[in-house]
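Renewal narrative, Specific Aim 1. Our central claim is that a sequence can be written position by position from structural information alone. The example that follows is taken directly from our test logs and has not been curated for this report. It begins with the structure tokens describing the chain, in the order in which they were read.
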């Protein structure tokens, strides 16, 4: 993508985010908050892809997480129709905060996230996955109980996200790297299938499809627990795995 195309893309994303932030200043809206966070995340991904500028990338992730935290702090003013978007597994900005090592935002965000699975709003295993990573990020909570609930929710099925979480708990670096690579491969195949179908979000596919923020967050948690990780993975470029510069 050329310089002019990148500038146009980032300008469009910035405009879309700004319009939603204007509406959010009037009243909280979970759907709009998630959209604004996504557009800002995508600006950061675009800058990382175009210039390998991790500073702007991490700033964007921090801003995305801050928007979501503001929503959580005002969730009592949300309407009933926001319930679906407030489900714990919809909290993509949690990954932004962990990936950007914004520990202050993580600490403030976690107590405000739903502690119960929202039936019909999210798959149960997705809820338990987020709960497990929340325990790992905070160093608190009943991690053993959460992992047991996660495993039960799979009903004997396979999950590379469960394998990654289990490897983080047990400290098995080889198992973690294998699971992360499998998650990345599954994601890339799903994105390619979307692209071939012709039914896809063009902003996502030009930006975030190539930068896997959830994967960056997983690597952060692994390194925090002393696991040996790779310098880079597919869709996890090396600058995105470096420590943010203050």
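The sequence written for that structure reads:
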């Amino acid at each position: 993508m050329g310089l002019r195309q990148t500038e146009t893309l980032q300008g469009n994303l910035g405009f879309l985010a700004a319009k939603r932030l204007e509406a959010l200043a009037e009243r909280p809206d979970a759907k709009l908050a998630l959209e604004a966070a996504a557009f800002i995340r995508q600006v950061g991904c675009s800058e990382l892809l175009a210039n390998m500028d991790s500073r702007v990338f991490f700033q964007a992730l921090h801003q995305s997480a801050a928007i979501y935290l503001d929503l959580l702090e005002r969730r009592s003013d949300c309407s009933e129709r926001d319930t679906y978007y407030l489900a714990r597994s919809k909290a993509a900005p949690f990954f932004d905060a962990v990936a950007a090592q914004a520990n202050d935002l993580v600490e403030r965000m976690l107590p405000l996230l739903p502690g119960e699975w929202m039936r019909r709003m999210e798959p149960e295993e997705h809820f338990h996955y987020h709960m497990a990573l929340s325990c790992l990020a905070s160093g608190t909570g009943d991690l053993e109980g959460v992992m047991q609930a996660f495993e039960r929710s799979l009903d004997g099925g396979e999950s590379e996200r469960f394998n990654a979480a289990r490897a983080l708990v047990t400290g098995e670096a080889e198992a973690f790297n294998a699971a992360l690579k499998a998650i990345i491969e599954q994601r890339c195949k799903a994105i390619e299938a979307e692209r071939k179908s012709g039914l896809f979000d063009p902003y996502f596919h030009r930006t975030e499809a190539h930068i896997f923020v959830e994967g960056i967050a997983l690597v952060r948690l692994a390194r925090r627990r002393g696991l040996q990780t790779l310098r880079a993975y597919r869709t996890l470029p090396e600058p995105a795995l470096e420590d943010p510069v203050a």
